Amino acid sequence: MYIPPAVQTSYATDWDNVGLGVPGAILKDITSSNPSLSRAVKEISISVAAAFAKDAVDFATNSVSESLGTEVIGGVSMIARAAINPHLEMIFKGINFREFQFDFKFTPRSPQEAQTALNIIQCFKFYSAPEIKTGADDARYYIYPAEFDIEFWSNGRPNTAINKISTCACTSVNINWTGSGGWSSFRTGAINGAPVEVNLSLQFKELEIMTKNRIGENF
């Protein structure tokens, strides 16, 4: 198939901000070249005082609301003239699987070319779907759909200017049978009523995570 008009690749990593709190601050002080012991002690004192005040109110009322507990902690913070620093840090969580979308437009000039376009569409529909074996026991399980290897070629050889794509699963096949904006079809040919323009949109997701090792191989 021809290279579609839009070819895009996204490399995404998953980061999240996490409040390390007092333990995180202590660890940072311990590992720092110039630890500030007094600051760590102060943070511990404020945290313990706030927790003790909240527990005391909970014990006295046995039904204190979360908002009241927050007010108590705020009161302790006001008296101490210091607030607990959440010590937010960015934590790396992982890598997302890369996804690709390719959009194709089929504009056959004859019923024979229309048949070829329909064969291509049927191929993607068929191999992206799972299979269920016949039989009472086998019907409980799906057989995995086919996997796809995608390559970009130019002048009869692989195009090294575009990143490689690892083995993928086809996660979506979308077909617009009225690509010209309205229904129009051939009246002759092996298949009567074959549309004169069809838009095919395919979405793929890679089955492996891209690390530096693979990116170094032009993935």
Word description of this protein:
The protein has helices spanning 21-31, 37-61, 66-80, 111-127, 212-215; strands at 13-19, 88-95, 99-106, 131-132, 142-143, 147-148, 153-154, 157-158, 168-176, 198-206. It is an alpha+beta fold and 219 residues long. The chain has two domains: 21-85, no CATH class; 96-215. Strand 7 (153-154) and strand 8 form a beta hairpin. Helix 2 (37-61) runs antiparallel to helix 3 (66-80). It starts with 12 loop residues before the first strand and ends with a helix. The model has no long low-confidence stretch (mean pLDDT 82).
Can you summarize this structure?
By secondary structure, the chain is of the alpha+beta class.
Structural class call reads alpha+beta
Shape: elongated
State the share of residues found in helices, binned by percent. Answer: 25-40%
- Strands of the widest sheet, in order across it, are 3-10-9-6
Order of helices and strands: EHHHEEHEEEEEEEH
Count of alpha and pi helical runs:
5
* C-alpha-based Rg, rounded: 31 Å
Number of domains: 2
Question: Top keywords for this entry?
Answer:
single chain; 219 residues; alpha+beta; four-stranded antiparallel sheet; two-stranded antiparallel sheet; 5 helices; 10 strands; 23% strand
What layout of secondary structure does this protein have?
Elements lengths: L12 E7 L1 H11 L5 H25 L4 H15 L7 E8 L3 E8 L4 H17 L3 E2 L9 E2 L3 E2 L4 E2 L2 E2 L9 E9 L21 E9 L5 H4 L4
Antiparallel strand pairs: 1-2, 3-10, 4-5, 6-9, 7-8, 9-10
Helix pairs in contact: 1-2, 2-3
